[in-house]
Amino acid sequence: MAKDMTLQRVSDLIKLANDGDEESEEARTAAVKAARLIKDNKLVLVPQSELERVERQIEGVRNALAKNDSDKTMHMAMAAVAGFFAAKRGML
After folding, report:
1. What is the pLDDT of residue 68?
2. Is the full-model pTM beyond 0.70?
3. No. of H helices and E strands in the chain?
């Protein structure tokens, strides 16, 4: 299953697990399926505030690089920032 489809499926299952009667068999089944997809696909939950913080940092890098109109330099810096965050998260 493609990553985007997996994320959408997990999101849908979590919504189903929390809609209406959370004690129903359907809600429990949805919760178990969501947990299994998260585990099987090694998904990591990241707080929205962390994503916003990273986006602000990337925007700061973009703004700093906007002064330098060299596309090559901008791409190298963005790759360095992305690599830093990937390494920090243990994704490399």
Report:
1. 63
2. no
3. 4, 0
